[in-house]
Specification:
The chain is of the alpha+beta class. The protein is built from 27 helices and 19 strands. The protein is 39% helix and 17% strand.
Length: 671
């Protein structure tokens, strides 16, 4: 995992390539092991215009890269000054995980220096692809997966992305064809952002690197703000930063140097397919095949030249991953984060899972480490956390920040159970509430009502300040919501199983995607790579084909539950033992029955209690003072009413309060 950034100038106006160092420095936490830059200009030689490449490092790593001049050096600055019109800069900050030598330094090129790459992520099947490419005559200089991407592109063109099994974001420059590509993995595990600013195309692993270019200023996107305070997420490609987009999962952009203005639209190369009509396996055979694919997926993702650990929450998903990884490595590092529940109450008293994690650690003989989050830890880390997250999405994430900080002290790579719920039906109450609709529009309406997690459409006139609200008159969050489904090319749903698959498709594209974006930012804040074995190509393709009747028990039972009350998940599972049925059957060979039969427990702090108790003064001080930045966009009367509802115990508004705190700190940090 690394940090990539750069810009492509599509006009004739010169751009100072020195800004590439500032752009890389902004994401130095993503890659503390190396830095590199490749600058491209057009020079006329012997009457012909030719592209010239200047490859550099910086002073911090000049001893590692003795064959490269630092960008700060007199030599580099003279070359930049006299090098003609610089039209492309590519920068890289490296977290060394595979091939720790300087042969894997980036930007990296083919032997003829015709194709250049900066890359963030891991291609888990890179050795298989390398063998295939070697059979076609290609020869490799390094042992890195980055070099495999280059020769895969040379052989198969940009369609090579369909062959990659992994998580990635990369920028590639084809110097012969003068074509630039920006691509993201099919599941969206790795984020990458971009914008068109005048005649410049700017990109980066994080938004702060784009802002460091000074090519674009930080301004708020009111439509993205509307999405965020509707869904506690952003479903479109927008971000809170005006004109800065998030490249969608399974998408690439192609740009030729002749293109200018708004630029080409992203190209979709892959999407989930939840069709199950051709599935013929029995439940036992399906469980057996699922176990095989799961073991294969975890084993694939263990490729590394540095230590690998695993989160161990005490649940089935992380426990199953630890079981397979532990057999491969022997004694593996595992990590768990718990909560001080001394001031919690009600359903929140069951939020600490450490005893189950310790039980599994003893069962698998892992080297286990824990930390405990107390009331007050949120406010201590919130400013720094929001600076790292920058792109606000989904719910409370500060426990994940502390978990990543713990793991980052021991390993560079950690395995996570993300995706198990979304692929195998881990949220039954979400799907069941939309069963038996009158028609497809009825399904969309009922499901949209559910996903208005923070502010209902009917309340937005009171929630947004007058000027902000008037600017939203042409923006429909329902249209944004419906647009997620329109990406599918399958027929409209008919049966309840069809509607459940529609729900799973939606949630894996939005809710899980939001979790991926946040997880990546938080883990990389600690120079830690997080891998998600459930998001393996073969495993995902098989999971999507499994009929919902094998994942869930009560396909005709309508259920309603408020997710502001995460403890109700536990009560629901205790009563029904529903959800992830086929996965539980498949994992019975790996983990104890007691864990298989455990109720689901979300990773959540007892914030409802803390926002009424030990954190109440912080909430009021941050959100209710007149100088709070949020009141440039939001109505103080509405916000005070919602906070009073929570503190008085009338309603649990913990998600809303978290989002307000996050937005306040976002404004302070970035605007």
């Amino acid at each position: 995992m690394c940090g990539i950034t750069g810009f492509l100038n599509l006009g004739k106006e010169p751009v100072n390539p020195n800004v590439i160092k500032d752009m890389c420095d902004a994401v130095r936490h993503r890659g503390p092991d190396d830095a590199g830059y490749a600058l491209f200009s057009s020079l006329r030689q012997k009457g012909k215009e030719q592209n010239y490449c200047l490859e550099l490092t910086d002073n911090e790593f000049k001893d590692k890269n003795s064959n490269l001049a630092p960008i700060e050096s007199d030599f580099a600055q003279a070359e930049i000054r006299d090098g003609g019109t610089w039209f492309l800069a590519m920068g890289h900050r490296r977290l060394a995980v595979i091939d720790l030598t300087q042969r894997a330094h980036e930007p990296i090129s083919d032997k003829g220096r015709t194709v250049w790459l900066v890359y963030n992520g891991e291609i888990y099947n890179f050795m298989d692809l390398r063998k295939e490419l070697e059979g076609l005559g290609y020869r490799f200089f390094s042992d890195s997966d980055a070099e495999v991407i280059i020769y895969a592109y040379k052989e198969w063109g940009i369609e090579c992305v369909k062959r990659f099994n992994g998580m990635f974001a990369f920028a590639l420059w084809d110097n012969q064809r003068e074509k630039f590509f920006l691509a993201r993995d099919r599941f969206g595990v790795i984020p990458v952002y971009y914008c068109f600013a005048g005649n410049s195309f700017v990109f980066g692993s994080e938004i702060k690197s784009i802002l460091a270019s000074k090519i674009i200023r930080a301004e708020i996107d009111p439509f993205a703000l509307n999405e965020y305070f509707t869904f506690q997420n952003i479903f479109s490609d927008r971000t809170l930063f005006g004109d800065i987009k998030l490249l969608q999962a399974g998408t690439y952009i192609e740009i030729g140097r002749e293109k200018a203005g708004s630029g080409p639209r992203p190209v979709k190369y892959w999407d989930y397919d939840f069709s199950y009509s051709d599935f013929r396996l029995s439940e036992e055979d399906a469980a057996e095949q699922l176990l095989y694919l799961f073991r294969q997926a975890v084993t694939r993702q263990l490729v590394s030249d540095v230590p690998v650990g695993s989160y161990l929450s005490g649940g089935m998903d992380s426990g199953s991953i630890t079981a397979v990884a532990g057999k491969h490595f022997g004694r593996i590092y595992t990590f768990c984060t718990g909560f001080d529940l001394s001031s919690a109450s009600g359903l929140e008293l069951g939020f600490d899972e450490r005893k189950y994690a310790e039980m599994l650690s003893n069962y698998f003989k892992t080297e286990h480490y824990e930390n405990v989050i107390h009331a007050g830890d949120m406010e201590a880390v919130l400013p720094q956390l929001i600076w790292h997250i920058e792109d606000l999405r989904v719910g409370q994430s500060y426990p994940d920040y502390y978990a990543s900080r713990l793991a980052g002290k021991f390993v560079k790579v950690v395995l996570s159970g993300g995706g198990g719920d979304e692929l195998f039906g881990g949220y039954p109450w979400r799907y069941y509430r939309v069963l038996n609709p009158a028609d497809y529009n009825g399904f969309l309406g009922k499901y949209y009502d559910y996903w208005q997690r923070l502010v209902q459409d009917t309340d937005k006139k009171d929630f947004f300040a007058g000027g902000t609200f008037s600017g939203l008159k042409d923006h429909s969050t329902f249209d944004v919501f419906r647009g997620v489904f329109s990406e599918k090319r399958s027929a409209k749903p008919v049966t309840n199983e069809d509607f459940i698959n529609e729900s799973m498709y939606f949630e894996i594209k939005t809710f899980l995607h939001g979790l991926f974006v946040i997880t990546n930012k938080i883990s990389m804040a600690h120079s830690l790579e997080t891998r998600v074995p459930f998001l393996d190509n073969d495993l995902v393709d098989f999971a999507c084909k499994i009929p919902p009747r094998m994942k869930l028990k009560n396909l005709d039972k309508s259920v309603k539950m408020d997710e502001n009350e995460p403890g109700k998940m536990k009560k629901y599972y205790q009563k029904t033992n529903d959800g992830k049925v086929i996965l539980r059957k498949a994992m019975r060979e790996l983990i104890p029955q007691e864990i298989l039969e455990r109720e689901k427990q979300g990773f959540s702090a007892p914030d409802a209690s803390w926002f009424r108790g030990e954190s109440i003064e912080y909430v009021k001080k941050t959100l209710l003072e007149k100088k709070a930045r949020i009141y440039e966009f939001l109505n103080p009367v509405f916000i005070k009413r919602k906070i009073d509802e929570h503190t008085s115990g009338k309603k649990n508004n913990r998600l809303f309060i978290w989002s307000l705190l996050s937005f306040e700190w976002w404004l302070r940090k970035f605007l």
